Amino acid sequence: MTDPQNWHSPADDARSKPEGDGQNPPVWGAPPAWTPPPRPGLIPLRPLGFGTLLWAPFQVLRRNPKATFGSALIVQGVVALVAIVMVGLVTYFALGRVDNAPLEDRAALEAGATLSIVLSALVPVALAVLASAMLQGIIVIEVARATLGEKMRLSALWRAVLPRLWPLLLWTILLSAALIAALALVVGLVVLLVSLGGAGVAFAVLTGVLGSIALIALGAWLITKTSLVPSVIVLERLGIRAAVARSWSLTQGYFWRTLGAQFLVALVVNIVSQIVTTPLSLLFGVATTLIDPNGSFEAYLPSILLYVLTILLGLVLGAVAAVVQSSVTALIYIDLRMRKEGLDLELARFVESAPGSSDDPYLTTPAVAPDTAWA
């Protein structure tokens, strides 16, 4: 007699038959819960592991090299070209004027030439600050859209960052000014103590050592705690003060993870750069003495070509480093919002929504008041 509890229909037999090779028959039961797409674009839509934070920045370059590497190369190339042309021309004319001046006027002209050269160097420095701010915004937008599976063109990235360029630039200036002021304070104290003489020299040495250590620690802490400000400014469209508070809040409890990821990526980029550039630098140093024993101009041509090659290689490596280091910061921002605010669910809903949705999944959901004074 058949046990009613063990009775099953032919349909149940069909469902219970193993599929494939028969080694792992399927388990039947309640349908699985809905899960978001594991990886629609650059990264999985879930909190990122530390290893993902390390390799994903390099994937940004590989995924959209024209927009990312192209932007960085254009920006850094323009800055380098302006620096070479402007400082070079000012130096050439200033030193030429000193050489052609009477002997009694040369002292005053040398001081004026030095001042003009220094002032001319400030122009490319200011341009570099602007370029750095713009490039950070470009990479932030690229990483954010690549996470959603989108691939933007270079022109589209540049247009997207322009509305937020002013707060990005202002933040870059403020952060640079704060670090320079701290450095100037330590240097000023050392100079003051040295000028006192006697025991002041010993205190100057002690102040220099302890001040340098304090500056490194303070700089690492401040830069890490505020490293997400560009991402907040661009993606959440907040002003500077609100963005600083937001970055401070997001990195709370994840300081060492944030610092570690940024440091390791920077270390990898620096090691690769040194491996590539060191042989060329050594070759350039030896080339002059080996190729040009008599000091003839024609013999300098190989050295000049090698020097130009070194500059071009430096621009390429600098562009790669800028993209990778900006990418890791943007990825940390997305990861922390996934961990603290469930951004991964919002991104998954956006990916699953109809194409052409006007909603922006990166707009902040917590109650953070926009900072209109710094916007």
UniProtKB/TrEMBL annotation:
Swiss-Prot/TrEMBL keywords: Membrane, Transmembrane, Transmembrane helix
Spans through the membrane: 73-95, 115-144, 165-194, 200-223, 263-284, 304-334
KW Flavoprotein (keyword) present: no
Region named Disordered: 1-33, 354-375
Compositional bias per record (Basic and acidic residues), positions renumbered to this chain: 10-20
UniProt protein name: Glycerophosphoryl diester phosphodiesterase membrane domain-containing protein
Protein's organism: Cryobacterium breve
Source species taxonomy: Bacteria, Bacillati, Actinomycetota, Actinomycetes, Micrococcales
